[in-house]
Amino acid sequence: MTRDLFARHRAVLPDWLALYYEDPLEITHGEGRHVWDAEGNKYLDFFGGILTTMTAHALPEVTKAVAEQAGRIVHSSTLYLNRPMVELAERVAQLSGIPDARVFFTTSGTEANDTALLLATAHRRSNTVLAMRNSYHGRSFSTVGITGNRGWSPTSLSPLQTLYVHGGVRTRGPYADLDDRDFIDACVADLKDLLGHTRAPAALIAEPVQGVGGFTSPPDGLYAAFREVLHERGILWIADEVQTGWGRTGEHFWGWQAHARSGPPDIVTFAKGIGNGMSVGGVIARAEIMNCLDANSISTFGGTQVTMAAGLANLTYLLEHDLQGNARRVGGLLIERLRAAAAQVPHVREVRGRGLMIGVELARPGTDEAAPEAAATVLEEARAGGLLVGKGGGHGTSVLRVAPPMSLTVAEAEEGAAILERALRSI
Ligand code: PMP
Question: EC no. (predicted)?
Fold first, then answer.
């Protein structure tokens, strides 16, 4: 059945939809932190948490809210007063840490970043943008243009002029050997140098922890140091929190808070799991920035009553159950287990992470060279053992990405770590 579906997939969908696994997986249902495939195999899901389903699969609170709202009304998000949208916007604005915050809802992270670029370029009257090397920001014409990870930037044409900045990757590149303070100073010096050679950019966009790029983060404080340089010149700071928001990094509710010394970003974008499976994305900005567009705008599907109901139910659940605290505690334990497991495996270059966002970077033993075939082997072996993990990284897709739903239990963390350990040993 699944093989037949694969053939039909290949015949009708674009080749650049990169399916995982030699024998692709058809997931048919899920519950909690588990999913099942069409053959009835059960898997512990260590990846879906950062894709669609932040909290848990088939979470009854969200399912009920969605079904009830779908049974009542789904209509234009923005042409009529939309109570669930106003309520979710109020809560998101209050949680954002941005003064005088306004919120605009979209259907995806791509569209959220696109809107952030629209605002920043209009506000600053400049279409030059700074982005980080190895970054990922989406799939639209504008966001592929600011995606520094070349493997995910399928066209060299862009409506924006983009300049790439060092700093998002700590353990590779020219400053890898410096200590944290010197690393930050070197990246700030680079940024200043870049700004000396260019017309004034609108903004710098950055993921506090790079997601698709392989769960790499700079030393705490890098973006605070950047922020000072940017703000002296009137340049905006956009934090792409599509993967890092809502407590996933454990210590902080937003990824940017690891850099909070000098205050919040000017614009924050979010998406992925906040609707726990329903498409909720959005942009948060100070009113002065949000309101800078010259003409009216609308969104048909961004913020529909049904997706907002999902967002409200999911946000309520994750706050009431302190899933940020859970990400910190269970994530801390998981990273310890994975570090211990990796110590026996010569292919592991680094185990890193924050909260429930953990990367296991593989390399050819004794070198810094990527080992994508080893990563592919581990992915297959983990699947055979009943565990789904992701992959990523800007250096040959050599990083295993671990990002379970944020309600992961200690027992599940132990079970998943044991399966991943066996898979790593099979390289
Ligand atoms: N920003 C980041 C940091 C992401 O990881 C992604 C998705 N991988 C996006 C933006 C784009 O989001 P979407 O796929 O919902 O368009």
Answer: 2.6.1.44
Q: Choose one of 209, 242, 243 to mutate for the ligand 1 pocket test, by most ligand atoms within 8 angstroms of C-beta.
A: 242
User: For residue 332, what is the enclosing H or E element?
Assistant: helix 323-342
Torsion of CA 264, 94, 284, 71, to 10 degrees: 150
Distance 145 CA to ligand 1 centre (A): 14
Structure ipTM over 0.95, yes or no? yes
pLDDT single digits (tens) 119-150: 999 999 999 999 999 999 999 999 999 999 98
Element (H, E) at 204: strand 203-206
10: amino acid identity, one letter? R
> Is 381 near ligand 1, meaning CB less than 6 Å away?
no
pLDDT in tens, 72-82: 999 999 999 99
Residue 109, ligand 1, Cβ within 6 A: yes
Residue 244, phi then psi, degrees to nearest 5: -100, -10
Which atom number of ligand 1 is nearest to the Cα of residue 212?
A: 5
The residue contributing the CA closest to ligand 1 atom 1 is 137
